[in-house]
Amino acid sequence: MSEILYMPATAMAAAMAAGELSSREVVAALLERAGGTQSALNGWLQRTPERALKEAHAADERRAAGKSRSAFDGVPVAYKDIFVTKDVVTTCASKILEGWVPPYDATVVERCDAAGLPMLGKANLDEFAMGSSTENSAFGPVRNPWNTTMVPGGSSGGSAALVAAGAAPWAWGTDTGGSIRQPAALSGVVGVKPTYGLVSRYGLVAFASSLDQAGPLARTVKDCAALLGLAAGHDPRDSTSIPAPGATDYLAGIEDGVEGLRIGVVKEFRAPEAGVQARIDEAYGRLEKLGAKLQELSLPSFEFGLPAYYLINPAEASSNLARYDGVRYGPRRRGEDVAQMMSRTRGEGFGAEVKRRIMLGSYALSAGYYDAYYGKAQRVRTLIIEELDRAYSSVDLIVSPTSPTTAFRIGERAADPLAMYLSDVYTAPVNLAGNAAISVPCGTSEDNGLPVGLQIIAGALDEHTMFRAAYAFEQDLGWILSPEGNPGNDLTAARKGGSS
Question: Is 218 helix (H, G, I), strand (E, B) or coil?
């Protein structure tokens, strides 16, 4: 069973194609793992065991008949509970959507279903994807498989924790300012934020529309490349979808290595934790040993990326969340008039962090403050885009730490929102620019034994080069991080090591 739990998704697909493994065996093992780890991690909000087994059986029958829908037919997947799923409750981890059953599937879900991926269930998250720790869920925090007193990162912490714990081979998350890459780093898995517009946002419940992007989390770089390829591409139902994104087979050329690639090291990005920076410096040396040409790169506008992000992000959130008013969405609360009804509905339905961002965003957009705050933030965004464009005239990729720290204790930053927001300091500028980026594990901190992530940032629509570098690095490192046996971990039956 442990071999199945920690088998990369691409290896699962190969074993199924060879007749060595069935989708039903995989799903049964993962369902057992999900039940055994849920109390420790709280990674699931909805589990769909009957549906998963039924879809696995259908996948096995298709494969036996030579009619598989894709190379990955039968490999199960989990979705962050911000993707709408037909006939399956979608809550966005908020009381205001508790019990809501959508009448349609998100495009990402449709495309994965068309490829034959059975749905294991919906993963926990920060409410409406607002957070960096997955402590803001209305249904309780998610815990890190490496140490269950620690956060897994956020907002896609449920997806990251499930993959890290061997409860799902791969999962979908969303990244607004680092919400895939940061939990990937803190949980010791691989996470990808694709180019904005590469993956359809249709059916992805909106948080900040100009920043949100769906992306995969998995145990290996190849797994992320494969899952992204299943869902990437134009969608006419999404007005921000890129009409002609180019080739979306991201496994093609992934083994070409980094020989001769020019990689910029961001001078302004040095992690405050010595244990994190030590692993990052080693990662830079490893890339150089593999043949990449590293050069220091200054991106001074990135200093203003985080404050700009935390003006644009709440402003868009305040607009998108206006629909949850007890009339269109949300359980209606009684009031003496419409205003009181809406106030009570929103007051009882939203959590503290969501309310905080709605207030910040409403203030930034209000008369007399729009130009001083939101307008200036958008000008900073333009500077970041222009600065990155100039940088890619001299380098092919940019590298930095993913997170300034390793995982922190649950509750440690709850009373200090600004400290929590600093978790996104290295990731948020990428969302402002719309570029692609990946976080790949680069070891564990000597300070506490917790995972550290290396961020590789590519130009827009240059995911192929990004995956090449990440795969070469992962293969040279030679091992996949596993939380089993780490102090504070109470999970069992896992395999350590291996590569895709």
Answer: strand
